[in-house]
Amino acid sequence: MITQDILIYEAGSGGEISVQGDDIALVEYLYNQVYLAAFGGNVEASTLGNEPAGTIREDWWGNALLFNNDPASQFNSQTELALRENALTSTGRVAIQRAFEADLQYLKSIANITTNVVILSTNKVQLSATLTKPNNQDVTVNFIWNNASGELITQQTI
Predict the structure, then answer these.
(1) Which helix or strand (DSSP H or E) is residue 99 part of?
(2) Which residues, 6 or more positions from 138, have their beta carbon under 8 angstroms from its beta carbon?
(3) Phi/psi of residue 70, each to 5°?
(4) What is the pLDDT of residues 74-108, one digit of tens each?
(5) Which domains does the chain have, with CATH numbers?
(6) Are strands 4-6 and 112-119 parallel, antiparallel or unpaired?
(7) Residue 135: CB partners within 8 Å, gap ≥ 6?
(8) SS3 state of residue 62
(9) Furthest C-alpha separation in the chain
(10) Alpha-carbon distances of 126 from 30, 118, 145, rounded to whole Å
């Protein structure tokens, strides 16, 4: 069974829908799940569950409205925040790796996940996730983050 989704890619402005010819491009759905899990959440704040009533919340509004009693369903991607807060050192790489793995945790019920974070240069880091589905079909997604500009500059599926 092939499941597809609208192809979303990063063009430096927070995600774009890909158009090929005169139609919206499609992609195997796990590709989008990795992108949205790692870069689709709250850079400003994660939902803690103990936010005082009446205060300005910087987390995603839907977490309180739609998933208030279900923290496992809340959108709180940690990867982009970890990329912004950690220097590209061996210690920073480990912190980014842990955040990336935490963001992909919810996908473990449908695929085995292998992640890797590699520092490419003083300003660039590559994040890779390989998801192996029960039928042994692999989907590998690679991201390259530019630490100097604070943005995702490349994304591709293999």
Answers:
(1) helix 90-104
(2) 130, 131, 132
(3) -135, 75
(4) 777 889 889 989 999 999 999 999 999 999 988 88
(5) 4-41+77-157 (3.10.450)
(6) unpaired
(7) none
(8) helix
(9) 49
(10) 19, 5, 6
pTM: 0.78
Distance CA 128, CA 119 (A): 12
Parallel, antiparallel or unpaired: strands 8-9 and 151-157:
unpaired
pLDDT band at residue 41, thresholds of 50, 70 and 90? Answer: low
Decide: residue 117, CB within 10 A, 0-12 exposed, 13-18 middle, 19+ buried. Answer: buried
What's 4's DSSP letter?
Answer: E
Nearest Cα to 46, choosing from 32, 33, 57?
57
Of 115, 113, 138, 135, the closest CA to residue 126 belongs to 115
